[in-house]
Amino acid sequence: MTLQNNLTFTLQVNNQAIAIPADRIVEMFHQLYYAIKDQTWENTYYLGRHIIKCPLDLWVCQEIFHEVKPDLIIETGTFHGGAALYYANVCDTLQHGRILTIDIDRYSGVTEHPRITYINGSSTSESVVREVEAVVKNKKTILVILDSDHGYDHVLQELQIYSRFVTPGSYLIVEDTNVNGHPVRPEWGPGPMEALEEFLRNDNCFKIDIGREKFMLTMNPKGYLKKILSDGSA
After folding, report:
1. DSSP three-state, residue 35
2. Domain for residue 41, yes or no?
3. Which of 16, 68, 70, 144 is least surrounded, with the fewest CB atoms within 10 Å of its CB?
4. How many C-beta atoms lie closer than 10 Å to residue 29's C-beta?
5. Max alpha carbon distance in the chain (Å)?
6. φ, ψ dihedrals at 58, nearest 5°
7. SS3 per-residue string spanning 160-176
8. What is the per-residue burial (b if ≥16 Cβ within 10 Å, else e) of 200-227?
9. Under 8 Å between Cβ of 146 and 223
């Protein structure tokens, strides 16, 4: 995220003043936060449930949920179910919304919750997509969060499939766009960011909502996509 006002900070190093742009400081902190994962993002729990998210992104999600009040939140990539539980608890507070969460694996010990429906299978398989299509019927407001396989081909396919379920004014959130040097894991290869960029080159229904990166640290740079036009298929 580009910071306003071109802020710089002066650090004293060996009695020498060095000016560092704020953008670079944010990038360096992002790289530090990611590098010490045993202390940070792999050591984060929600009500005892492992949740591999940045807390700042979780906060942004609840702000979006409050504003949009989705009838249905579709999540690809359940893992241990920490995020699904968090989303469900936010919906509890809002007294509105359900979670449909999909994973190719079914991990033991995921939390049962009346607002959560689990689907076991690949998010891009025809059978799973048919199940999703059955659930989205008659839902007025739908939000999608993509957080499964982070390979370029898979994310692009998810974007092409799940973007049509998102309703105008709601969001398609592409997670972990920070890999492949944005600014972490430069060795990753094309991933979520590159898939997102390719998707947006051919789609004018979404725009990047850069304001959702207001806390500066996000695992999803450019990944908060707001749907501004209807594609007629949701």
Report:
1. helix
2. no
3. 16
4. 12
5. 66
6. -65, -40
7. HHHHHHCCCCCEEEECC
8. beeeebbebbeebbeeebbbbbbbbbbb
9. no
Q: What is the pLDDT of residues 85-102, one digit of tens each?
A: 999 999 999 999 999 999
| pTM strictly above 0.90 | yes
Confidence of residue 26 (pLDDT cuts 50, 70, 90): very high
CATH number at 175 reads 3.40.50.150
**Residue 20, Cα to own-chain centre: how many angstroms?**
29
Across the range 62-66, mean pLDDT stands at 98
Looking at the structure of the chain, the number of domains it has is 1
Strands 45-46 vs 49-50: parallel, antiparallel or unpaired: antiparallel
Residue 31 to residue 189: CA distance in whole angstroms: 17
- Residue 24 within a domain: no
Alpha-carbon torsion, ordered 26, 30, 31, 35, to 10 deg? 150
3-state secondary structure of 130: helix
